[in-house]
Structures are given as C-alpha cells and as structure tokens.
Design a protein that fits this description.
alpha/beta; 7-stranded mixed beta sheet; 9 strands
Length: 306
Amino acid sequence: MSSPDSRPDLSSLIERADQVLRQLAAWLPPAPPPIDWSAHAFRWRRKGSTGWLEAVKHISTIHKDDLLHIERQRDTIDRNTRHFLQQKPANNVLMTGARGTGKSSLVKAMLAEYASQGLRLVEMDKSDLADLTDLVDIVAGRPERFIIFCDDLSFEEGEAGYKALKSVLDGSIASAGDNVLIYATSNRRHLMPEYMQENLSTKHQPDGEIHPGETVEEKISLSERFGIWLSFYPFRQDDYLDIVAHWLRELGCPPESIAASRTEALQWTLERGSRSGRVARHFARDWAARHMTAGSGAQADNGAGQ
C-alpha cells in the first residue's frame, strides 16, 4: 500500500496538464476573429487551415467621374452593378487589356458609388481562390450584395484555384447565391498561358469549320463563364494629356501651371514606356508637389489611380 508521501502531488499534475494543453493549442488552428459586417470592404485572409474576412479600415477611393476615356467600359460595369443591387439578373465581369487603364479603379469606383446602397467589396488573392466556396458560404444569407474582386488574375497549369473559380462561376451543382458576383481583371484574355503547339491540335473540317483542340477548349472555357468581357486599350496622347490635366485640376493647379506641364508630362510617359491613366496620375502628383507652394491646393489621396 502506497504511503501518502508517494502519491503524485496534485499541483504538479495540474502544471503538467497545463503544459500539455498549451502545446496542443500551439498546433491547433486559431479561431477566426469575428467579422465586422459594418465595413464596406474586406480582404480574405488565411493562416494555416483557417480563413476569414478581414475588414479594410482605410479604403482606396476613386470616383466614376475621375475615370476618363473609358466611358463605354464604365457605363457597362455601372449598369451591371446597378442591376445587381436591384436584385435583377447580373453578370460576372472579366476586364482585360493594357495595364494602368482603369480596370481595378472601375471596381473601386463602384464601391464608392454604391456602398450606401448595400454594395460590399471582398478582395481575394489568386492564391486563396481554393477557398472561394467557403467565402460564398460565409456571405450567403446576408442582406448586403457582395462583389468578390480578383485583381491581376491569371493561372499556370494545374493551379488549384482555377477549378474552384470555374465551379463557382458556372458549373457546380451548388449555386454561388444571388448576392455574390465576381469581378476580375487580367492581362490575359483566356486567363492561362497559351502555346503555339496547342494550335496543332485544332481540326479543320472540309466545310471550313474549325474545332479547337481539347487544351485550347479548356483554357477558353474559364473566361467564357464570365458573362461580360470588357477590353481596355492604351490611351492616345491627347487622352493621356487630358487625364493629366484632370488630376492637376483636382490637386489645385491653376490653368497656367497645367498648360506648362505638357512637355514634362510627355517626357514622363516616354521614360516609363506607358501612356496610361496611372502614369498620368503619378506625373500629376509629382508636378503639383514641385510647382505648388506648401499648403495650397487639394491633397492627393492614396488611391492607385486610373
């Protein structure tokens, strides 16, 4: 029979159990933080096996009237977004084309215009698209209307997010819900790299009809699931200078300063090899900072520009 002195000390057992529990807790995924549904914009975050919606505290803001010389694209996405908010049929949108021409800015402008009417924006990285169905489940049943925004979207062969996006767009037995749309931007029309050898599998029928090979069909099938395609093109010189003048006016530059900026504005775009709205806004900030006295004029916000 054991003596009382040989029994394990109770406090020692509790301490050892506490150590074991702490070690186990370090291996368990963290509990997701509560979602701040009062926010207008969110990012999808992931740590280990846990994903959650993180509210964006400082939103990059740009307005529709700031986006010049893309009126057709602006009107199309604005109409589609209004239909979405009115609970009418609306389409997922794919925007492709030249960099810096207003693709992502258009999405931000929709949030600035319609956040007061219940529109919400969720930014999701391509690397997290495998979680897309989880995100759709989280917002299902919410009264707000959510645009899931995927910027600079493209895929390489075999990436997991490709099939997840394809299923949510159109093709899964589960619906994405009527309060979710996907707006994506890309420099690739078909979202995946295309190779010359893939054209060798294309079949030409005697009557002239063309049947793409299976690899080509697979790559086209993803982009075709977006109901609206919008193409963006490099700006002409006069359009570029018009955008420069717009941002200089917004920054409080007088007309004589805007007129004097023309030569440097053209040199700026030559140095960068791009004539885009983003380049125009970057130049306007630099010119205004160098030619205006301290404290005069409007302050530029931190948005990405056109």
